[in-house]
Amino acid sequence: QVHLVESGGGLVQAGGSLRLSCVASGSIFTIRDMGWYHQAPGKSRDLVASITSGLDENYADSVKGRFTISRDNDKNTMFLQMNNLKPEDTGVYYCNADVSQVTAPWHVYWGQGTQVTVSS
Predict the structure, then answer these.
(1) What are the residue ranges in the chain where pLDDT is below 50?
(2) Contact 67, 83 (CB under 8 A)
(3) Distant-in-sequence, close-in-space partners of 36: CB < 8 Å, separation ≥ 6
(4) pLDDT at site 105
(5) What CA–CA distance (Å, rounded) separates 36 from 8?
(6) Edge-to-edge, what's the strand order for the sheet holding 2-7?
(7) What letter would DSSP give residue 97?
(8) Residue pair 100/30 in contact by the 8 Å Cβ criterion
(9) What are residue 102's phi and psi, to 5 degrees?
(10) Of 116, 36, 102, residue with least CA distance to 71
(11) d(CA 37, CA 30)
(12) Are 20 and 48 in contact (CB under 8 A)?
């Protein structure tokens, strides 16, 4: 079994910063793409940023220039540095990872989410 755990959320004023972390653990052989998703209240879960195992990055237009995704392949950990936060960034942030286990095929796992609240 594989588990993803997010941390780093919280309450911050507009213009502030937060750094989210996502740690993958379990019987992991290798991880391909990892990503961060944002779900605002009453809205769908949307991709914020993704990163390949080769460290190629992809961002939603709404966060370009403000958010930076990174990962440490040796530690199965991914980060999201969020700067110049806006009230519309409020919501739950989820991480996911496309994981291969030694005795199981590729499967996408999700974390439980971490709440980010940006006050105006």
Answers:
(1) none
(2) yes
(3) 20, 22, 47, 48, 49, 50, 69, 78, 80, 93, 94, 95
(4) 87
(5) 13
(6) 2-7, 18-26, 77-82, 67-72
(7) E
(8) yes
(9) -60, -40
(10) 36
(11) 21
(12) no
State residue 62 phi and psi, 5-degree precision. -65, -20
Task: Evaluate whether 120 touches 12 at the Cβ level (below 8 Å).
Answer: no
**Residue whose token pair is 């992991």:** 28
Contact 78, 84 (CB under 8 A): no
Tokens 């919280």 belong to residue: 10
Give rounded-to-5 percent helix, strand, coil for the chain: 10, 65, 30
The predicted structure's pLDDT at residue 103: 83
pLDDT tens track for 75-108: 999 999 999 999 999 999 999 999 999 888 899 9
